[in-house]
């Protein structure tokens, strides 16, 4: 059966539902197609469940520190993973159901369940229904990559999604891939009580970030007893007595890592392979991404790609910002562009690592005349009072224009404190502006003007050093 709409939205992830809300409010007749869970990755298997579990892990960690805070030791802290999961599931379900209820009662929006595939540039099939529209918005997200590691077909493994179904704590979790997924799960499972080994092919953590950031993050992990195996070459998988083994070298005598469970966290693949793109005159790039212009339009007029599937961001905030760009340009006469946004992200370790703009290495590589300000968290009063002094704050400023170039914070509250720098950078403000502001005492943020007041020339011979 054929149905006609003003717009089709494929995927109810982080851009699609909000776009449906804006378009229907403007009087458009909209069809929203979702094949799995409303809320997509972030709500169901990404940000929401992992940050809920990070909170459980933080509570376990704090309990173990009781004596440090002058409290009677609480004895051995053990996690009941089934209960951690139950709490996590409740938080996820509330978020998903809230979204679903909103969409179901949205005037002008018709929901379809199933996989949408193109039949032409202006029509998609979902089961027996053919949905036609002059505007099609793809918000199809991605899924964990299945890497071509030798032995993968013989070894049971977990992904970031299937790991969430565990109700018993892994005795020893082997993780391959030290990206955001690998890092966050490594610390949270260690804190819940698992032994954890993190295997990564790069010689150091976070290769796109500064040496001092990577060193601080490595310290945070190893201080908690996580085994790091960096620079692993020729990673292959095997089994011994039904338990997973990760081989980390081509050398026969290099010791393999043995564990009880194996998590592969080696990136994500866009869900563009089953859209029948060719029927819309589209072709994904070599990594499966849909190429888009600055306004997120694909090569076929009338088709947009938003969120993880366009390769212009891999975060919930970038997917949501994609929605804002598309809605502003279509409905508000805006001329917003993807390149107007700043690169911002956080990894939810404890303490977290948050960043905006350029790294020190990028500033050096560009040869920009720059100043750097850096302060260890041991010199941040609020961090000292909290007893959480790992890490540092670092800011980079253009030596001639005083413009803020970037900042990294590895430290307690860093995921929140970074936002005053993000806002200042978005407003094209300067180090002088940051220094002239008054912040609340006692906070981590209140030291940010101080860091902007301690700027030193970023000399070529100075290397970024680990903060202690
Ligand atoms: C473990 C983990 C933790 C994360 N933590 C964070 C974090 O803390 N902060 C952060 O910013 N980001 C985080 N992310 C990344 C974040 O989840 C994604 O960037 C975000 O969900 C992307 O949103 P999206 O709308 O592009 O896609 P998705 O959320 O993946 O939504 C896409 C939707 O489209 C549906 N779909 C796909 N194809 C079709 C089709 N053909 N027909 C119908 N429906 C279809 C899918 O079922 C899905 O519901 C995390 C990711 C993971 C895996
Ligand atoms: N806090 C957050 O914002 C957050 C949290 C989790 C996930 N995410 C997003 O989810 C996505 C997926 O995260 P991820 O950690 O799976 O991917 P990633 O790309 O961030 O990291 C993958 C890691 O696996 C390694 N790797 C990849 N292929 C390999 C190979 N063949 N052999 C050895 N090592 C290999 C890489 O070197 C890298 O360190 C990312 O885009 C990330 O931004 C974000």
UniProtKB/TrEMBL annotation:
**Cofactor(s) named in the record:** FAD
This chain's source organism reads Hymenobacter jejuensis
**Intrachain disulfide bonds:** 42-47
Fetch the Pfam families from UniProt.
Answer: Pyr_redox_2 (PF07992), Pyr_redox_dim (PF02852)
Keyword flag Flavoprotein: yes
Task: Please give the superkingdom of this protein's source.
Answer: Bacteria
Which residues participate in NAD(+) binding?
A: 177-184, 200, 267
Q: Please give the name of this protein.
A: FAD-containing oxidoreductase
Supply the PANTHER family for this chain: MERCURIC REDUCTASE
């Amino acid at each position: 059966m054929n149905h006609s709409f003003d717009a089709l939205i494929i995927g109810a992830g982080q851009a699609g539902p909000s776009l449906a809300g804006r378009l229907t409010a403007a009087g458009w007749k909209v069809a929203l197609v979702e094949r799995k869970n409303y809320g997509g990755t972030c709500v169901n298997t990404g940000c929401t469940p992992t940050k809920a579990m990070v909170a459980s892990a933080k509570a376990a960690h704090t309990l173990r520190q009781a004596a440090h805070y002058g409290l009677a030791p609480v004895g051995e802290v053990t996690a009941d993973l089934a209960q951690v999961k139950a709490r996590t599931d409740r938080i996820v379900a509330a978020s998903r159901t809230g979204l679903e209820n909103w969409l179901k009662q949205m005037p002008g929006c018709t929901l379809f369940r199933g996989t949408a595939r193109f039949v032409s540039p202006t029509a998609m099939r979902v089961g027996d229904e053919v949905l036609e529209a002059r505007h099609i918005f793809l918000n199809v997200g991605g899924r964990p990559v299945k890497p071509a590691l030798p032995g993968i077909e013989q070894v049971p493994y977990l992904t970031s999604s299937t790991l969430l179904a565990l109700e018993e704590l892994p005795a020893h979790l082997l993780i391959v891939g030290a990206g955001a997924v690998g890092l966050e799960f490594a610390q949270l499972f260690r804190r819940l009580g698992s032994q954890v080994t993190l295997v990564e092919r790069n010689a150091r953590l976070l290769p796109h970030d500064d040496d001092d950031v990577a060193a601080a993050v490595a310290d945070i992990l190893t201080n908690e007893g996580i085994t790091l195996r960096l620079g692993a070459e020729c990673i292959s998988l095997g089994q011994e007595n039904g338990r997973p083994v990760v081989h980390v070298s081509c050398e026969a005598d290099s010791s393999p890592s043995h564990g009880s469970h194996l998590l592969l966290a080696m990136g994500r693949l866009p869900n563009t392979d089953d859209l029948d793109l060719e029927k819309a005159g589209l072709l994904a790039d070599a990594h499966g991404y849909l190429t888009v212009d600055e306004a997120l339009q694909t090569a076929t007029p009338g088709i947009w790609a938003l969120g993880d599937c366009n390769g212009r961001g891999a975060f919930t905030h970038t997917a949501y910002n994609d929605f804002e760009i598309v809605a502003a340009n279509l409905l508000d006469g805006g001329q917003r562009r993807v390149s107007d946004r700043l690169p911002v992200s956080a990894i939810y370790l404890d303490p977290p690592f948050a960043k905006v703009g350029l790294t020190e290495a990028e500033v050096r590589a560009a040869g920009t005349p720059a100043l750097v300000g850096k302060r260890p968290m041991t010199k941040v009063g609020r961090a000292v009072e909290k007893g959480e002094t790992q890490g540092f704050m670092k800011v980079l400023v253009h030596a001639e224009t005083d413009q803020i170039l970037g900042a990294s914070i590895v430290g307690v509250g860093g995921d929140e404190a970074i936002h005053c720098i993000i806002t200042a950078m978005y407003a094209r403000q300067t180090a002088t502006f940051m220094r002239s502001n008054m912040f609340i005492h006692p906070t981590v943020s209140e030291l940010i003007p101080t860091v902007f007041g301690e700027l030193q020339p970023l000399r070529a011979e100075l290397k970024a050093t680990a903060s202690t």
